[in-house]
What we know:
Blueprint: E1 2-6, H1 10-22, E2 26-30, H2 33-43, E3 47-51, H3 59-68, H4 70-73, E4 77-82, H5 87-95, E5 100-103, H6 108-128, E6 129-132, E7 135-138, E8 143-146, E9 149-151, H7 155-166, E10 172-173, H8 174-182, H9 192-203, E11 211-214, E12 218-221
Parallel strand pairs: 1-2, 1-3, 3-4, 4-5
Antiparallel strand pairs: 6-7, 7-8, 8-9, 10-12, 11-12
Helix pairs in contact: 1-6, 7-8, 7-9
Amino acid sequence: MKILVVEDDPEIRTLIAYFLRKEKYEVEVCDNGLDALKMTTKFEPELIVLDLMLPNLDGISFTDMVRTMPEKYGKPFILMLTAKTEVEDVLKGLNIGADDYMKKPFDPRELLLRIKKILERNKKEEKSILNYREIEIDKEKYVLKENGEEIELSKKEFDLTVYLIENKGIVLSRDKILNKVWQSNYYSGDRSVDVYIGKLREKVKTLHPHIKTIKGVGYRLEEEK
């Protein structure tokens, strides 16, 4: 796990880096915003510990540039370090994409805890969020969005979509789909799968051209190129 520490106070910067390295994180440090931008492209950190008051480029401007150019800077988590009087800046930073903040002075152990919680939250989101072309699925909330618009699906339609996407590129027999999605032993002549595939093709336009019928077997969702 790569973490970039951007802090112009040498004592605080050294302290944070020490505790992070002690936890086996790979750490790089910067003392100003412009160098931090360069380091972000070079080091590609998963998380940035960012002081708001920085020389050359302040933390708000830094965050705005990183969030508006993900193709250049990636999508690192940003945890801001702020003085007690910087409430408006904190709100501004969170609004443009910072993930969390801590007020100075702080206990390094609390900082480590905040970092771990951010990373754990990301792991949970990675497991629950599924993407395929123009489709985004939240498996925990049972929500499917296509081009940002929510599509209303029944539970079976939703489960079938998830199963197809999680197994894209693989030929799935009708029996296998029935056992997984319906979780019941239907007889082989049952046409439930065909009916529901037809419903998905109609409701979720993105899927229509990419669900391929494998004659005499079942279906395959094409992989993204």
